[in-house]
UniProtKB/TrEMBL annotation:
HAMAP family: Pterin_4_alpha (MF_00434). One of its GO terms (biological process) is tetrahydrobiopterin biosynthetic process. The keyword ATP-binding does not apply. Transmembrane segments: none annotated. Its EC number is 4.2.1.96. It comes from the Bacteria. This is Putative pterin-4-alpha-carbinolamine dehydratase. It comes from Tahibacter aquaticus. Keywords: Lyase. GO terms for molecular function: 4-alpha-hydroxytetrahydrobiopterin dehydratase activity. Belongs to the pterin-4-alpha-carbinolamine dehydratase family.
Length: 112
């Protein structure tokens, strides 16, 4: 898969351990979202974004929220004046599903 294909993909319902990304496929997907930290043990993707001020931070957060609602897949956010720390994981899978990589890639496209 290419980065563009990942970004253009959409989330689908993924439930249960059978929908987790197999360990031997995580590396290949991780290469496509190189700015994210892939925490295999915790089963999550994490990235920190920095902004000029609160207006820019919240513009980004709102764009992410809009995308997440459309995809029905939602990040954990830690937001401050000029930063947003973001984590993606799939609760229904208990770790990483393809949905997490899709959404991380879509977020990358917002700040490109
Ligand atoms: C029914 C609905 O698809 C699920 O509750 C979705 C909503 N958003 C979600 N977001 C995340 N991050 N993980 C989930 O498992 C999840 N499940």
């Amino acid at each position: 898969m290419t980065k563009d294909e990942l970004t253009a993909s959409h989330c689908t319902p993924r439930k249960g351990p059978g929908d987790a990304v197999p360990a031997d496929q995580i590396g290949e997907l991780a290469q496509l979202i190189g700015e994210w930290r892939v925490e295999r043990e915790a089963g999550q993707l994490q990235r920190e974004f920095r902004f000029r001020d609160f207006h820019h931070t919240m513009g980004f957060v709102n764009a992410v929220a809009y995308m997440a609602n459309r995809e029905d897949h939602h990040p954990d956010l830690e937001v401050g004046y000029n930063y947003c720390r973001m984590r993606w994981s799939t609760h229904d899978v208990g770790g990483l599903s393809l949905n997490d990589f899709i959404c991380a890639s879509k977020v990358d496209a917002l700040v490109r």
